[in-house]
Design goal:
binds zinc ion, 367 residues, Quinone Oxidoreductase, Chain A, domain 1, 10 helices, seven-stranded mixed sheet
């Protein structure tokens, strides 16, 4: 069959919506009718060449839809199930999956992360295979992907909410409650208040943080952060971030600091804002060329920790459902994260608006 998909053919060029030839799901695969897909910074990193990956590629990795067809041997989902895509494979039996660290799964490392587990692609353009981001490539009407990368969810969850649980919500909230596991009463700094950073803010609120300091360069983002639970805001363009954080925390610094951006200055900000025994967490995925000169002796004297979290260290098979329940119970605010929805044809406008920092999250709705 055919599917229309947004394809990146060259870096620094707009995505092109093309009709691709699509094969049905093979053993262990499913075809999903995509209902909603979020516009995320990770797609943009590929579009502007921060993460050099082989093109052409169907982008998109934060999405939800309905199972349209299952390949031979698939028993985890059936036609008609509502699912959220996971952008990481989950073999279920490697050392990391066995320990519950599914984001670090090494079970499918023999094949690249932009095709199926057998190393081939299910979509073609003029007879040539097209790569798909994270094995799912969800900027498309129908995605054929490994069954281990879809998680069944409750059917009353709105499609927009289901889509963003698959990346920004899982990454931001997961960074706080699954990775850092902050204690109630903690002091927290969040640098960067985009789709992921706002979810770090509300994850910290959910976990009972006493002080949540949100930092961004844009006042509209800081205003959003207060709506999600920030108790203090710092404009990094006008204020000295570290000095202000120290003032707010009585000179000590914060117990936890999260960098939702992933650049040299922001990594240094989270480390330098820590209190003794503090934990700094890199959440946003940096450009592959990024380096940051930390000051090791201060980390020794202060017994501080610097760590990275990928995908919020979530276990999609269990955590997507939990996040859906927290959203439906009103404990996580996903309504106000969805600033805008777009038609598929407006996808490039969606990326321009995101790059200008005008939205918390934009989501593409498919018919
Ligand atoms: Zn994403
Ligand atoms: Zn595994």
């Amino acid at each position: 069959m055919k599917t229309r998909a947004a394809v990146l053919t060259e870096v620094n060029k707009p995505l092109q919506i093309m009709e691709l030839e699509q094969e049905g799901p093979k053993a262990g695969e499913v075809r999903v009718k995509v209902k909603a897909a979020g516009v995320c910074m990770s797609d943009y990193h590929i579009m502007i060449g921060d993460w050099p990956l082989p093109l052409p590629m169907v982008l998109g990795h934060e999405a939800a839809g309905i199972i349209d067809e299952v390949g031979p041997g698939v028993t985890s989902v059936k036609k008609g199930d509502h699912v959220i895509f996971s952008f990481r494979s989950n073999c279920g039996h490697c050392a990391y999956c066995s320990k519950g660290r599914t984001v670090l799964c090494i079970g499918f490392n023999d094949t690249p992360r932009w095709g199926m587990h057998d190393g081939t692609s299910r979509v073609k353009l003029n007879g040539e295979p097209v790569n798909v981001m994270a094995r799912i490539g969800t900027f498309t009407e129908y995605s054929v992907c490994p069954a281990d990368q879809v998680v069944k969810v409750r059917e009353d969850l709105p499609w927009t909410h289901a889509a963003i649980i698959g990346c920004s919500v899982a990454t931001g909230v997961g960074a706080v409650i699954r990775h850092a596991k902050i204690e109630a009463g903690s002091t927290v700094l969040v640098v960067g208040c985009g789709g992921v950073g706002l979810n770090v803010v509300q994850g910290a609120r959910l976990a009972g943080a006493k002080t949540i300091i949100a930092c961004d360069l844009l006042d509209n983002k800081l205003q959003m952060a207060t709506n999600f639970g920030a108790t203090h805001i710092v404009n990094g363009k006008r204020q000295d971030v570290i000095k202000t954080v120290k003032e707010i925390t009585g000179g000590l610094g914060v117990d936890y600091a999260f960098d939702a951006i992933g650049t040299e200055p922001t990594v240094l900000q989270i480390v330098d804002s820590l209190a003794p025994a503090g934990h700094a967490v890199i959440v946003g995925i940096p450009a592959f060329s990024t380096r940051a000169p930390i000051t090791p002796h201060l980390m020794v004297y202060g017994e501080q920790t610097l760590s990275g979290t990928y995908y919020g260290s979530v276990r999609p098979a269990v955590d997507f459902g939990t996040l859906a329940d927290l959203s439906m119970d009103g404990k996580l605010n996903l309504d106000d994260l969805i600033s805008r929805t777009y038609k598929f044809e407006e996808i490039n406008e969606g990326f321009q608006i995101m790059a200008r920092g005008q939205v918390a999250r934009g989501v593409i709705l498919f018919d």
